[in-house]
Design brief:
The protein is built from twelve helices and two strands. With 246 residues, the protein is mostly helical.
């Protein structure tokens, strides 16, 4: 047979769902599925699969799944009260995979600006607390934990996520983490977001519309953050130095 239809693949028991989905996309886009096309995709034609070829395809499908990314939910993290209970050390995001003008991107540009060390700090956060050196670093980790945890069904905008991450990255919540723990951090980040949302709508609007923040609004956000936490009478010297944040 020179060409194949989707039905040819769907009737094969040894063809898994991921391969069928790939064929379905091709047919929906009007691509004629020939032996040459299947060869380029490293997919054996229907009726030619053996146990050995099936194992080969499963390896390919596993790599495709890996490149698409996945998250790992950890029971221990869940029992410790962090929600969503994602284990970042065993989770993958789809970064730089694929071809064409659009490439995979782990974060919106604004996140890279407000929290450039986010990956490293999250990975450190999930380590056993006994392995963390220094009380100050433990406070920073607790602050990250507070700002990244949310209740089931709670929805946050990108602007809220970015502004509260910025507060943690600049060390503004370390003292609260030390005195009141994760719940204290959540309380003050919530109040800080409401303050920014009400007093600096131009910052919120830019982040929501562009997924980025310009230098002028970033400086405005930094100033507003200093004003807010100064009003809360939190001494700056009690914080760690900002970690790589402009």
């Amino acid at each position: 047979k020179k060409t194949f239809t989707l039905e040819d693949f769907e009737s094969e028991d040894m063809i898994n769902d991921q391969t069928k989905a790939r064929i379905r996309v091709l047919t929906e886009r009007g691509v004629t599925v020939t032996r040459e096309v299947l060869q380029k995709l490293d997919i054996p034609p229907p009726g030619t699969r053996t146990v050995e070829s099936l194992a080969h395809i499963q390896d390919i499908d596993a790599l495709i799944s890996l490149s698409d990314g996945h998250i790992t939910i950890d029971e221990k993290i869940f029992k410790n009260g962090r929600k969503p209970a994602i284990d970042p050390s065993n989770s993958l995001t789809r970064v730089g995979i694929g071809s064409g003008p659009v490439q995979g991107q782990a974060f919106a540009p604004v996140i890279l600006k407000v929290a450039p060390r986010l990956r490293l700090d999250i990975a450190q956060m999930v380590q056993d607390k006994d392995q963390v050196l220094g009380e100050e670093l433990s406070n920073r980790i607790a602050a990250w934990e507070g700002v990244l945890s949310q209740q089931v069904g709670e929805v946050r905008t990108l602007a809220e996520i970015a502004t509260t991450l910025y507060a943690v990255a600049k060390g503004k919540l370390d003292h609260r983490a030390m005195e009141e723990g994760v719940q204290g951090v959540q309380k003050y980040t919530s109040e800080f977001w409401k303050y920014i949302e009400k007093s600096k709508p131009e910052i919120v609007r830019e982040i929501q519309e562009t997924q980025d923040i310009g230098q002028e609004n970033l400086e405005m956000l930094s100033k507003a953050m200093d004003e807010f936490f100064s009003h809360k009478k939190v001494k700056k010297e009690e914080f760690l130095e900002p970690m790589g944040v402009v």
